[in-house]
Specification:
By secondary structure, the protein is mostly helical. The protein is 84% helix and 0% strand. The protein has one domain. The chain contains 17 helices and no strands. Helix 1 runs parallel beside helix 8 and helix 4 packs antiparallel against helix 5. The protein is globular. The relative contact order is 0.11.
Length: 485
Amino acid sequence: MAVTGEVSSSQERDELNNSVRFGRNTAALLTGRLVVALAGWAGTVLIARDLGTEKFGQFTLVFSLLGMLSIITDLGVGRVAVAALLDSDEDRELFAGTYILLRTVLGGLGYVLAVLIALFGGFPSPVPLAVAIGGLVVVFATPSHAYEIAFQVRDRLTPLAVAESLAKFGQFGLIVALVLRGGTLVWFVIPAVLNDLAILAWKAPAAHRLIGFRYRIDLGIWWALLKEAVPLSLGAAFVTLYYRLDSVMLSKLDDFEAVGAYGVAYKFVDLVHFVPLAVSVALLAPLTAAWPVNVNQFHQRIDHSLRLLGLAAGAGLVGFWLFARETAVLLYGGDYDNVGLATSIVVSGEVLAFVSTVGITALIAVNRHLWYPVITLTGLGLNIALNLWLIPSYSFEGAAVATLITEAVVLGLLWTRLQRIPGWRESRHVRTFWPLPFAVGAGLATGYGLEQVVHWIPAGMAAVGVYAGVAVALKLRPWTVAPSE
C-alpha cells in the first residue's frame, strides 16, 4: 500500500509539474505574441496612413502573396518533426539538423516561386520589385521557424517569446523612421526582412544550446518527413489559400482600393490571431506526450485551451461587433470608414478558427489527421465559389462573408472527426462554450447602452469589462479546469 501511495504521489507531482510548465509556456507565448501583434499592427497603421488606399492595397497584396507561399515552405513537416523528436531520443541531433536543411531548401523554393508569380502575374510595376525584396522574408523566416522545434521539445518558449518581441520593436522603429523620411511600397517591405533576419541570427545559436544539431542532407529522413506530413501539407495549403486568395481575387475582380480596405479589416484578424497561434504552439508537445499514455491529461489540456480561447474570443466579438468602424477610423483614418462591417465579419470567422486550431492540434497529436486535407479542400472550393459570386456584387464585404461561411463549414466538418478521438464525447468539450452567449450578450448590451451617453472608447472598455466579469462568474476560467470525465 505504501508503495502504491508513493507511486500515486509521484504521478500527481509529475502531472502538477507538467501543468505548471504548460501554463508557463502558454502564458509566455501569449504575452510575446500579443506584443508582436500589437507592434506589427501599429506598424501597418503607420504604413496605411502614409501610402494611401491604393498603395496600401498593393502592400497588402505583396504579403498576401508571400503568405500563400507557406504552402511550399512549411508543408506541415514542422508539426510532424515535433512529434518525431518527442517519440525517441535516438539520433535526435542528426534528425533535427536534417530537418533544418529541408526547411531551408523549401524556403528557397518558395522565394523563387513568389518572384516568378510576381513577374508573370500581370501586377503593376512596384509589386514585382517589392515581392523580390520582401520575399527574402520567406528565405529567412522558414529556417527560423524550423529552429523553434528545439524550444518546443525542451519547454523553453519564454526566451523565444522575448526575442521575437524585441525584434518586432526593432521593426516598428524602422517603420517609424521610414514614415518620417517618406516611405514607398518597396522601402516599407524592408523592415519585415530585417526583422526575420535578426530573429534567425538569434534563434540558430540559441537552439544549438538546446539540441546539438548535426547538419547533413539525409534524403531518407526528408522523404519520411514529407510522406508523413502529406495530409498536413495539403490541409495547410488549402487553409492558406482560402485565407490569402481572397485578396488576390479582389485585385482581379475589383481594385486595389478594395484590397486595401480588406487588408485593414484583416489586420484586426491578425491582431487576435496570435491567441490560437500561441496556444497551438504550446499545446502540441504536451498533447503528443500525453497521448495515449494519459488520456485524462490529454483532455484536460484540451479543456484548458478551449476555455482560454473562448474567453479571448468573446472579448474580440464584443469589441469588434460594437466599434469596428470607429476603431478603424481612429487608427487608419477616414478613408477606411467603410470597413466596419467587413471587420466584424472576418473577426467572427477568426473566432471559429480559434476552435479549429485546437481541433487540428488534437488530431495531429493522436495521428488522426488524414481527413484534414479533405476538410480544408472542401473549404477552399467553397471559398473560391463564394468569392466569385459575392465579390462582383459586394466587393470586400462579400469576401468577408465568404470567409465566415468557409470557417463555419470547416469547423463543422472538423468537429465530426474529433468525435472519433477516444474520450472526446465523454469529455463533452463543447460544453466549455455555454457561458459565451450570456457573457457576450451582457457585454453588447452594456456597450450599446453606454454609447448613447458617453464616448465609444469608455463604452467599449466597459462592455469588454462586463463581458469578462460575466464570463468568469459563469466559470469560463482557463485556470480552473476540472478533471475530464
